[in-house]
Design goal:
This protein has 305 residues and is of the alpha/beta class. It is built from seven helices and ten strands. The strands form two sheets. Strands 1, 3, 5, 6, 7, 8, 9 and 10 form an eight-stranded mixed sheet that branches. It has a two-stranded antiparallel sheet with strand order 2-4. Helix 3 packs across helix 4. The protein starts with 18 loop residues before the first helix and ends with a helix. The model has no long low-confidence stretch (mean pLDDT 93). It comes from Enterovirga aerilata.
Length: 305
């Protein structure tokens, strides 16, 4: 009789991180009594791709922020920097020099990645290469920044409609949304739902599987990587190009709403990194108190206080 080992089961614990449960436990340990309510939908809108991908204009949507020299450290591995946040949809040219975008303002996985490689969280270079090769018709003239907002209402009633208006202005046929932190994944999914409900096919390319599927993404490309690497591994162009190609395939082939495609890429053979993000078991009462004080300070900084 074959043994379990013969079936090549994955090691215990080598499963996607349960970010919703992990972050609830983390903030409860910091002393916040009201648990956050994550957006939840049973169904999802779905807009079929109306033409061949080689004829389509593809828009890129990011939760990264433009670098602000007066806002403190925003470089690779910088501590969380609430003052570098942005609170309204912004746009930038998709042609010319690569923009200087950073993710110091959000909770990516600082233990296991540094955000030193722009290509891991902002795949504009990969999208340009796809256009040069004829895989897509063209890159839309602008990329768009989507705020990370804990308020479902603000995302759905303000940010998503503004994003739709800008994508329509650019005559884009579809959009790829690339979130980074846990709440980013929720915001991107809510925005994707709004775009699809208004006829714009989308793919959310991200690393927080539970959050995106809970919120009901129409199409989701899941990479089982540390947060901050939704577009591929750092300093690995082949990984980044494959990640974009998988997103494009999903645009073409998704049979209907709530389609998830798992990337075959792995972060490493050792899955121990999955135990660390927002893990309260390793934190002393003194460290929890320090983090609570720092979190409150960063909230004030984000509000300009």
């Amino acid at each position: 009789m074959p043994t379990e080992a013969a079936h090549s089961f994955a090691p215990d614990g080598d499963v996607p991180i349960a970010y919703m449960a992990r972050t609830r436990a983390y903030y409860a340990a910091l002393g916040y009594e009201t648990p956050y309510r994550w957006a939840y939908h049973l169904d999802a809108p779905f807009a079929p791709l109306g033409r061949r991908l080689s004829e389509c204009s593809i828009a890129l949507v990011t939760t990264a922020a433009p670098y602000q020299p007066d806002k403190g450290d925003q470089g690779p591995g910088a501590p969380y920097n609430g003052s570098a946040k942005f609170f309204a949809v912004y746009s930038g040219p998709a042609e010319g020099a690569m923009p200087d975008l950073r993710i110091s303002h959000i909770a990516y996985d600082r233990d296991h990645t540094s955000a030193a490689d722009l290509g891991t969280y902002f795949p504009l270079r990969q999208l340009r290469l796809a256009a040069e090769r004829g895989r897509i018709g063209r890159v839309a003239p602008r990329f768009h920044g989507l705020p990370t907002n804990r308020s479902h209402r603000v995302t759905m009633e303000a940010d998503a409609p503004e994003l739709l208006a800008r994508i329509r202005q650019d005559a884009a046929d579809a959009a790829i949304l690339v979130p980074n932190c846990p709440v980013c994944h929720q915001s991107a999914t809510l925005a994707a739902r709004h775009l699809e409900a208004n006829g714009i096919p989308t793919v959310v390319a991200g690393c927080a599987k539970d959050i995106v599927e809970h919120a009901g993404a129409p199409r989701f490309l899941f990479s089982d990587f540390p947060l901050g690497n939704s577009a591929g591994r750092p300093d690995d162009l082949a990984s980044q190009e494959l990640t974009l190609e998988l997103a494009l395939r999903l645009l073409e082939s998704a049979p209907g709403p709530r389609t998830t495609l798992h990337s075959p890429l792995r972060w490493s053979e050792d899955h121990a990194w999955k135990r660390d993000y927002a893990s309260v078991e390793k934190l002393s009462p003194e460290e929890l108190a320090r983090r609570r004080a720092e979190f409150d300070r960063q909230k004030r900084a984000a509000k300009g206080g």
